[in-house]
Amino acid sequence: MADKGRTLLIVEDDPALQKQMRWSFDDYEVVLASDRESALAQIRRHEPAVITMDLGLPPAPDDVTEGMALLGDIVALAPQSKVIVLTGQNDRANALRAIGMGAYDFYAKPFEPELLSLLIERAFRLHDLQMENARLANQTLGAEGRFITRDANMLRVLRTIEKVSATRATVLLLGESGTGKEVLAKTLHDRSERAGERFVAINCAAIPDNLLESELFGYEKGAFTGATKQTPGKIEVAHKGTLFLDEIGDLPGPLQAKLLRFLQERVIERLGGREEIPIDVRVVCATHQNLQNLIAEGRFREDLYYRLAEIVVTIPPLREREGDAALLAHSFVKRFASEQGRSSMSLSREAVAAIEAHKWPGNVRELENCIKRATIMADGSQIMVPDLGLKPAEENAGFFNLRQIREEAERKAVVSVLARVDGNMVKAAELLGVSRPTLYDLMNRFGLR
Ligand SMILES: Nc1ncnc2c1ncn2[C@@H]1O[C@H](COP(=O)(O)OP(=O)(O)OP(=O)(O)O)[C@@H](O)[C@H]1O
What we know:
alpha/beta, Rossmann fold, five-stranded parallel beta sheet, 19 helices, binds adenosine-5'-triphosphate, Sigma_54_int, transcription regulation, ATP binding, transcription, ATP-binding
């Protein structure tokens, strides 16, 4: 089968002409329709890049009412498709009207394959260029944005990160494991004036207590057995940049005191050294633990907490972010498929439903691993529920009192459908059973971009 980018839809009610056109344009993946309803069904199914349509369609093939109505539908449903209307010999008025409504071009019958094919090829080229432009624009956005989300609370978190990145304040990121604390810390660094300097991360829980001090503060040659050469610590390496202390709740007591001293005086001494080295770093730290509890239990210094927590940002777990699981899943599928050289992979409808129903205790990291495995396991180009290793979602789980929470339900539906179809407005409007303008209105009303 030719690829989707080369699909041509021919809307023609005369069977003989339909046949002739199909033969003439067999370079493309041709799909056919003979009236408005079947044309719309084909558009939903194939998303044709180019459409040729006769303006006179049944039930009234002698006037243009049905054709113009179809054109209006297409412009709303598939604005990226290029429509060429086929008009009668002396029907300039309707040709111009069609262009005014959003048709790409018109062609006056009689049918001459060579002439029409020139028009069609040009329409394909324009369509390809526009798609490529949109793809490049998306890529840039993705690279800058780093953090994928459409959830309202998470977007608020991102705005906070954006605001505090311009300041010198220390930031404490709170969130379950795998929620993206390190990605956010890096985002904060990239948005700050320190972006050109180093971002140095250290996981306080992953390094044995007796090594953590030398990792953080560095050491002089001969400071201890095995210290064969002078080695700067992470704090020193991060000079002028950002130091990210992950799992700060696991920092042992004596090191808490030493870190506090550093934050107050902004100088360090390497282990075994006598020299005070001034250091300028922005400190960002993170933990999945409840620091207030640790303070109450005497396991975390309150004075250190207030030094570190000038700004506290709480990151919601994935299960509380509306639509994000599906959105991230689509994006991971794209990434892993291309990493594995499998060009087009997608999630089946049931797979998306299973992803939405799962609670993701390991958050984005768990989802990322799950999709990575699935892209390897899937036999064809579609990822099915068994490839994910998840339970299929139950149909109709949960009922709402829609009258009471109608607004909320509408908002949820829009957010989740947008995520499910990966932001494709045409598909989202179709799934929600509303026109695109209505969808835009809803998005405006709920403050969705
Ligand atoms: N919103 C997001 N968009 C894209 N990728 C994400 C997002 N959030 C997290 N990730 C990816 O998920 C993985 C886990 O994220 P990260 O390491 O930042 O989590 P964490 O909260 O620091 O976890 P831990 O507390 O276990 O260290 C990473 O591979 C990261 O790239």
